[in-house]
Structures are given as C-alpha cells and as structure tokens.
Amino acid sequence: MINSINIKNFRGIKKGQIKDFAKFNLLIGDNNTGKSSILETIYLSATASKSANLDNIGKIMLSDSDYMGYNSFIRVHEKHAMPEKKLNECYEGEIIIKIGSGDNPFYGYKISDKPANFTEEDAKKTGLFIINLKDRKSNEKIKKIKNLIEEEKITSKNSHLTFLWDPDMTYNYAGTAGWLIEGKVTEKVLFYDIQLVFQHLPLSVGRRMLKEIPAWTKEVYKYFARILNLPEDGNLSYIPLENNTEYLQPYIAIQDNPALPLDSFGDGARLVFKVLAPLVALAKDINREKSGLFLWEEPELFQNPVTLYKLLETVVNLTRDKNIQIFITTQSIEVIACFTDLIHRKTIDENDIKAYQLNLSDGELKTAWFTGENLLVWLRNGFDPRIWAKFKSPLSYKLRVSEEEGEEEC
Q: pTM, whole model, 2 decimals?
C-alpha cells in the first residue's frame, strides 16, 4: 500500500506532501488545488514497470501500460490536450534524452533495453523514469537530480523516486519534476476519469479478461442491473467495432429484448458500466500475493444521488476485502455524505478511510485530513469538509437522526 507522497514541480504543485494514506482516500477541495495532479503522480509511478538501464545509473523503470492497456504517459498527455513534443531521440535501439539541456541533469544520457531494442514509438512514450530506493546505497546514484526530494526525507527502504523531464507537465515550465512515493507500488492500476466514459475496450484487454476472469461478463451485468434497477435475467456480450476491430463494444440484452450497444444508454449508465467492468475484473484478479490501485476522478459525474450511492456502495463491497487501495477526487458533498453513511452503517471500517482537504497557494500544497470518525462529527454538525475558508455554502448536508428508526442518516 502507498503510504505517502512528496511532490516537487509537477503541474500546479511546486511542492507538497501527503502522509499516512489509508485504504480508501478521498481528495477534496476547491478547484485547482492539486487533486488530479496527485492522482496522476501515483498513476504515472505505479505504471512505470518497463525495465531499462540508464547511463551511469543502472536499472530504472519506464512508463508502461495500465490495467486497461493504455500507456500512462501518453494518456496523461491526451487528458490535458498537451501538444506533442519530441523529448528524446532513438538511435541504434537506444533512447537519448534530448530536452532540457539547461535544467535536466540527464540530458544526453542513453536509455537502453538490451537485448531488445527501443523504437521511435518507445521514445515518444518516454518522459520519466522511476528508481526503486530499496538499497540505501542507490541514493549516491541520484545526487545529480537537482532541486528534488532531499535525502533526509527518504525514510523507507521501500521508496520510489520518479524523475520527469517533460516541461509541459512541470510547474511553470520548470523543465523537470520529481516525486517520492513510499510504500508498495503495484503494476495493476485502474485509472478512471471522464475519458474512459467515451473510450472502448481494447481487443487485447477484452480477450485477457474473458479468458482469465471467471464469469466476468455475468458478474458485470449483475452489478450493473442492480444499480440501475434493471431485470437481472439479461446478459452482456462484447463485439468488435465495425469501423475499428481493435476495440470492443459492449452489448446489453435485457430479458427477451434485442441486444443494444452500451452507447445507446445514457451517459450516467455508461459511466456506471465502465467503472464496473474493469473493477470487477481487477477485484477478481487480486489475491494475497497481488495488490491493485483504483484511481477515480469525480464519481459524481452524470449521476443521480440514488444511483451514485448504489455505485459507491458496490465499489466498496467489491474492494473492501481485497488488497486494493483506492484514491478518489471529488467536488461533491454527496460523495462525502455517501461515504460517511457507509462508515456509519459499518460497510467501511472508520479506520480504513481518510479524507484529505487540499489547498494550493503559490504552488505550495497544504492538507488537512479527517478520519472516518472526524467525518461523522463534521456532518453531524453541518460543516462542509470541502471548504477550507470560512464560507457558508447555500447548499449543505447534515447527518441527522431518524425519529422513527432511531438511526443516523445522511
């Protein structure tokens, strides 16, 4: 499990640190407070699993594919509509770092992967590497990295230092960025954002899930039907797209009706389905020896409060007994209220969840955190844990006591 993260110069964050992550982590706060940036640093590091070697440094790990088959570095670029920039050159099967001669201590260094050879396509997907700091002696090898994580902050042998040299992804185009993650970083990473609502399942990933995950489609339809109040005697199948057979389109048949493509359903239903399909697979794919990460941006998108609650409850039930750590960003008090209600109902142990209130001022990230017990107290008293300053929202939630049942509810 990831325990902490220390960031310098990534996107809107000049410097910042968050410690003591739990199993379920809610990142809340105003717009432009670094919520997405934190998810992206975790995502980029967790998917850096392609082994390579760097001149005079030794073994490093490069960006690779996530659980859905997408290259993480390219996906973050597309997410922010960043212009394509040539960060490296490929020469005789090696990647040569060719950007940031003034501020990149590794300018001109070669990345090799012998006996395999890198291609120009590999060079486009390379803009960061990760070093595992299990061996304390390896600290001597990274002293050339300027203005990043100070050595005294490296407290765990299970530490992973990520170095990035894409100026478009750095604070005020600083040129380089770095972040230190302490804890276990897994390769099985599912990052769900609005992009996935409109993307189709890669054929290779679909084949793997159908072959390796028992009763995968049956389980996905079962949860989908329960959340959307559909008859449970329907079925789910995947068919290649007519105009691009490298991707699969889900078709859903309800009772005796013809099967309809998922795109025929509303955006809210599509979001529910596209959260459930890979998450059901991930939950079945995890055992005691394996671990997973689920990173989720704004689950409230397109959702009615009733459907939102059912979806969040289902996600919790799928993952709470699995070795899967969850990070969620949200703008919605409803998401916080739903999780608080799940704590109250003992669906989530209050020790397994934390909410982090974020604030970003002149690039410095500040955080305050709430345990499950704190969240219950705040909502009982009508306070809004999303809001840092003294601001009275015209809309608010309050945990209240039902006179009939004698139970608290949101």
A: 0.91
